[in-house]
UniProtKB/TrEMBL annotation:
Name of this protein: VanZ-like domain-containing protein
Keywords linked to the UniProt accession: Membrane, Transmembrane, Transmembrane helix
Organism expressing this protein natively: Peptoanaerobacter stomatis
Residue ranges of domain VanZ-like in the record: 12-129
Domain of life: Bacteria
Transmembrane segments: 7-24, 59-77, 86-107, 113-129, 141-163
InterPro entries named among the record's database cross-references: Teicoplanin_resist-assoc, VanZ-like
PANTHER family the UniProt entry points to: MEMBRANE PROTEIN (PTHR36834:SF2), MEMBRANE PROTEIN-RELATED (PTHR36834)
Keyword Transmembrane assigned: yes
């Protein structure tokens, strides 16, 4: 039970960081947010072209950004079915895109929903694999790695903040 409380704290920290990245675009001031209201409902329709090649880095980053969410959801909602976990991940991604559209702070894109949800699915599957592999201590190991990542992220944010003062 203690491990799940630690996981919950780590997930709250993670969600705050995710909101800062997705909604606030790493800005420290709301005035600096872009005024964009755009919607793309065609999946993988508009990849950025760099040096004549499609740049899929945004898709990859979206997948990577949601892997921890899948891990946390699986740990904290272990009694829920996989389908319910996936619906929660999808709904979270959809809400992020909806907020961006409503407040005109970014382009809402179905590709983002697909890639975010895919990352969450990878996180759930990885979490299931770790649960089978490590048995009793798997949540402890996830929490240790998550704590290290949270410390690194916090240090990077402090450096970013100090560099912009």
């Amino acid at each position: 039970m203690k491990s799940k409380k630690i996981t919950l704290i780590l997930m709250i920290f993670y969600l705050i960081a995710l909101i800062w990245v997705i909604i606030f675009k790493l800005e420290f001031s709301i005035k600096e947010l872009p005024q964009i209201r755009n919607i793309n409902l065609i999946p993988f329709n508009q990849p950025a072209i760099v040096n004549g090649k499609a740049d899929i880095s945004e898709i990859v980053l979206n997948v990577l950004a949601f892997i921890p969410y899948g891990l946390f959801i699986h740990i904290l909602m272990d009694e829920k079915s996989i389908l319910k976990k996936l619906l929660i991940i999808f709904a979270t991604s959809f809400i992020f895109e909806l907020i961006q559209y409503i407040f005109a702070i970014g382009a809402s894109d179905i590709t983002d929903i697909i890639s975010n949800t895919s990352g969450g699915i990878i996180g759930v599957v990885f979490s299931m694999f770790m649960e089978k592999l490590l048995r009793e201590n798997w949540i402890k190991y996830i929490n240790i790695v998550s704590t290290i990542c949270a410390i690194i992220l916090t240090a990077m944010c402090v450096i970013l903040l100090l560099a912009n003062i």
